[in-house]
Amino acid sequence: MGLGHEVFIVSNHYLTDDNFVFFEESDAEVDVAWEWFGRSGIEKFDKDKIRALADAVDVIHIQYESFLWHHNYITYDNFYDIFGDTPVVCTFHSSGIHPAWPVGKFAATIQHDIRLQSSGNRYIVPMGVPEWEIKKETEPVLMSFGLGRNNDDFCREAIKIANEQHGTSLSYDAQYGDKKWVSESALQSRLQRARYHALIYPPVGANVSSSAVCQALATAKPVFTSQTNWFEHVRDYVHMVETPCEMAILLSTYESPAGKFLKAEQRSHKDLINERGMTRIGQMHEEIYKKCISGESDDKQGT
Questions:
Q1: Residue 49 domain-assigned?
Q2: The predicted structure's pLDDT at residue 70
Q3: Domain of residue 171, CATH code
Q4: Do 38 and 57 share a domain, yes or no?
Q5: Would you list the DSSP string of 155-169?
Q6: Range 68-102 burial, b when 16+ CB lie within 10 A, else e
Q7: Which of 56, 108, 157, 159 minimizes the number of CB atoms within 10 Å of its CB?
Q8: What pLDDT is attached to residue 113?
Q9: Number of neighbours of residue 175 by Cβ within 10 angstroms
Q10: What is the number of domains present in the chain?
Q11: Residues 265 and 236 grouped into a single domain
Q12: What local confidence, expressed as pLDDT, does residue 295 receive?
């Protein structure tokens, strides 16, 4: 990113095993270190080591999501003090912010959705979309993936209707049966072989944004989602469906020459990458880090 500074990224993801790739080395000029507190949690983690790392870098960036943080292992009274005088940025990935979390002490807070509220120097940064090479050769497959939240029965019924009533020859593939973390390159390879992607999630009583849909959109293939708040942030780039029959009709249309008209109705993949691609997201973070390092303060709710 060209900052000429180091950024230390932390979390205490207590469910993660050593095979999960948090961060892959890149040619970025900013050196990024990812530290996770593991099963023992922050209370048993070497605080001197954290403080030494904090003193050695210019910005600390905490990724906060309730799934990533085990609150039973955190002492909030002295949590923030561990980082000393180093500016701390915190990204809130959902509305489930623990009431004891020291929001007001952060140099900046980042959120993906303007619907979420927090105090402090707040920036809105969209959830990033990987900038993958577009593969034109695909298999006639509708694929779902992720943490197993998808409604498989809905998707199978849509495929059955499309094949039996509309003459398509599609199959369904759910890529989460092994429940193992995979690297981005492995995920990319799996997703790019599919012609379509589906994420049919149930609604939840919180402001949430799906990260899985960003991976699906990176393939530049049609993406079908449920009409829930999980996908409001990418509404212009997906097909929101209410019934298997509706999805079946869309699938069969895509399989016909008329599919090009469906594509034309949505915003382009180029627009998506310009707005939410990782290059753009990196630039937005770079600007935030620079402001924190220089001590500037403003609230960018629409950035």
A1: yes
A2: 53
A3: 3.40.50.2000
A4: yes
A5: HHHHHHHHHHHH---
A6: bbbeebbeeeebbebbeebbbbbbbbbbbbeeebe
A7: 56
A8: 72
A9: 17
A10: 2
A11: yes
A12: 82
Predicted local confidence at residue 143, as pLDDT? 95
200 and 150 in contact (C-beta within 8 Å)?
A: yes
Q: Residue holding tokens 């293939």?
A: 221
User: Do residue 188 and residue 229 come from a single domain?
Assistant: yes
Distance CA 163, CA 166 (A): 6
Q: What residues of the chain score a pLDDT lower than 70?
A: 1-46, 65-80, 94-102, 114-120, 176-181, 297-303
Q: What is the CATH number of the domain that holds 111?
A: 3.40.50
Place of tokens 């954290």: 50
Specify the pLDDT at position 298.
56
Identity of the amino acid at 86? T
In a domain, 133, yes or no: no
Q: In the prediction, which pLDDT does 102 show?
A: 67
pLDDT of residue 117: 57
Task: Determine the Cα–Cα distance for residues 215 and 207; give it in Å rounded to an integer.
Answer: 20
Residue that the structure tokens 């999960």 belong to: 20
Residue type, 195: R
Give residue for tokens 């959705």. 113
Q: Which helix (H) or strand (E) holds 191?
A: helix 184-192
Q: Residue 252 and residue 47: Cα distance in Å, rounded?
A: 58
Question: What is the span of the domain harbouring residue 271?
Answer: 139-275
Tokens of 303: 């950035």
Asked whether residue 258 falls in the same domain as residue 289, the answer is: no
pTM score above 0.90: no
Q: Which residues contact 227 (CB under 8 A, 6 or more apart)?
A: 240, 241, 242
Q: Which residue has the tokens 């050769």?
A: 137
Name, in order, each residue with C-beta under 8 angstroms of 186's C-beta and a sequence gap of 6 or more: none
Closest CA to 300 of 78, 123, 111, 115: 123
